[in-house]
Amino acid sequence: ELIIDESYMKMARQNGLLIHPYTINEKPDMRLLIKWGATGMFTNYPDRLHSVLKEK
């Protein structure tokens, strides 16, 4: 369950903050956070994140 939402991330990014949520281990969550503007993320499964990043 994510404890952050799109509006919070948008506000943070508009204020010049980088966002690196943790620990994101599921592909749907990775996709969503990337869509929302995450600038990085911590995961126990870097291969999954790599796979998601290659989808673009």
Automatic annotation (TrEMBL):
Pfam families xrefs: GDPD
PROSITE patterns hit by this protein: GP_PDE (PS51704)
GO terms under biological process: lipid metabolic process
Span of domain GP-PDE: 1-53
Entry GO MF terms: phosphoric diester hydrolase activity
Identification of the protein by name: Glycerophosphodiester phosphodiesterase
Organism: Bacillus wiedmannii
